[in-house]
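Deliverable D2.4 — example input (structure tokens):
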């Protein structure tokens, strides 16, 4: 059976093909040109942004054309002012009859997609100038880090274990998913892995001999991460339960559809990212109703704790799988004040154990 990531890439490639059918020929050329150095999900994101841009061009700039009829020659006619007008347009626009509004970070991503597009054709000498070099990146503000406090981490794990405050249908489901849910939350909070990395885990990726597991990172690279004995206890209980279920060819009363997957849904297949999001939301809503806690916020909780304990941004970047330490620095910049406070007394100007002689103590000469 193909791995979770192979299946995801296959679906993504199908989505790319469907999208390209509605885009200009230069979009297909661009997609092929960057395929050797980008993952399918990255290319899909680029093409979705290019579709919005092309839709804007035929509405505001080339009104006698269709999206399919646009060409690189049309891109060559654009000016930095045209791009700036497009960025403003993103604040409120309509696509396929639906209203959309981009905030600053969404605008930043869409401008980044255009930078990649114009740079590609400029490097291949299809464009005389790369106008994107003259366009400023939309200003963005750092978002406050939303995370669980120490007591909230304890509470959400306790809630996953006991289901004490769940009611009705959720309570009934909890009776059969408690071991799985606690193990998954422990893994998120104890390692900081991404949701895609979590759902992609297989049973044979876990090694209890040294409390390690193999994870497929963003970009497709694999690495080995480690977990604490506390996380190991939760995972071990779940794996033992899962092995027993699979030996009976069922899980949660359903036929097991994916015998390799570590985290199984109540339908017997591998859990989807959406199912994981709903599971986290279910418990977080009880523990901290005013915080919007997602699997990514559990990752932020781990990253923040690790940064506080190590004061080493490079360690945090490595464990979280950030290729660029500046990405880590951006996400955890708000923690710098804590570190500045903590180091106040680290540097000693004078050794307190040394006796000090003041003028009044000196003998008269």
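Example output (designed residues):
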């Amino acid at each position: 059976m193909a791995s979770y990531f192979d299946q995801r890439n296959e679906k993504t490639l199908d989505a790319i093909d469907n999208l390209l059918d509605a885009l200009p020929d230069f979009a297909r050329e661009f997609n092929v040109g960057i395929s050797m150095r980008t993952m399918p999900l990255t290319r899909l994101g680029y093409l979705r942004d290019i579709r919005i841009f092309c839709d804007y061009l035929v509405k505001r700039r080339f009104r006698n054309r269709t999206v399919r009829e646009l060409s690189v020659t049309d891109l060559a006619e654009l000016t930095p002012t045209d791009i700036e007008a497009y960025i403003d347009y993103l604040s409120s626009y309509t696509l396929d009859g639906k209203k959309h509004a981009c905030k600053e970070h969404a605008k930043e991503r869409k401008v980044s997609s255009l930078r990649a597009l114009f740079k590609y054709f400029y490097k291949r000498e299809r464009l005389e100038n790369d106008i994107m070099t003259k366009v400023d990146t939309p200003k963005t503000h750092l978002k406050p880090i939303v995370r669980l406090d120490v007591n909230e981490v304890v509470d959400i794990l306790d809630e996953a274990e006991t289901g004490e405050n769940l009611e009705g249908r959720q309570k009934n489901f909890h009776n059969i998913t408690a071991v799985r849910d606690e193990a998954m939350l422990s893994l998120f909070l104890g390692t900081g892995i991404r949701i895609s990395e979590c759902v992609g885990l297989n049973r044979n990726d876990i090694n209890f001999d040294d409390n390690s597991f193999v994870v497929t990172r963003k970009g497709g690279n694999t690495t080995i991460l480690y977990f604490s004995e506390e996380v190991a206890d939760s995972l071990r209980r779940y794996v033992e339960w899962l092995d027993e279920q699979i030996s009976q060819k069922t899980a949660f009363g359903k036929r097991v559809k994916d015998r390799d997957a570590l985290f199984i849904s109540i339908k017997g297949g591998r859990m989807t990212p959406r199912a994981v999001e709903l599971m986290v939301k279910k418990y977080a809503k009880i523990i901290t109703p005013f915080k919007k806690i997602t699997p990514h916020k559990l990752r932020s909780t781990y990253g923040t704790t690790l940064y506080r304990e190590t004061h080493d941004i490079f360690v945090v970047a490595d464990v979280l799988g950030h290729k660029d330490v500046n990405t880590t620095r951006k996400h955890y910049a708000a923690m710098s004040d804590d570190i500045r406070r903590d180091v106040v007394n680290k540097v000693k100007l004078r050794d307190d154990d040394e006796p000090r002689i003041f003028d009044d103590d000196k003998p008269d000469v």
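The mean pLDDT is 88.
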